[in-house]
Amino acid sequence: MASLARPRRAKKLPPKWPTLRYERKLWRQGIAYIAGADEAGRGALAGPVYAAAVILPSSLARQLKGVRDSKQMKAAEREALAPRIREVALAWAVASASVEEIEEINILQASHLATRRALEALSLAPQHLLLDAVRLAAVALPQTPLVAGDARCLSISAASVLAKTARDVEMCRLHEQFPHYGFAEHKGYATAAHRAAIVAHGPSLHHRRSFAPMKVQV
Q: Which of 3, 12, 13, 48 is deepest in the core (most CB within 10 A)?
């Protein structure tokens, strides 16, 4: 007897390359300054959380070829493309929230705080925000949250690259002060080597002690 069950739909994956689809829709409405924003370091065990905001020009063609979700890029790719993003953008800014702020208000609110700081630091006032699956309740601007936005929307992808490269620089700086944790290699994320270093040396002032994995380690 044939099954009457409906066939499962294949899970739709985000595109390999982000596009300007969402920006163009807004540009056609006369909205010139559209800021894509994203964060980096939300899931790490150590270090600040960073965020970036980028406003791209409506004249943009293929000047940012290769830019995509920073998590899909190798470090060398991000480092090569970050200066190009800054050169092409009408405006860009990077900001952070400290470990102390993360501990005080939690990582979600701290990542939102870093994003607000990046938006406030832009040299042009954005008229609309494109965000990676979040909405900033404290920001009184029209917003479009996009699931997998860092993979689908070029402005958000560009912001993810700037946030990630800026945070990596900070983690390498912390590595110089605390080389026994290996921050330069894992950038504060919960690798086996990082967890072992925490057990061996205890947490530093730059570790997020409220995070559940940290409570297991110390």
A: 48
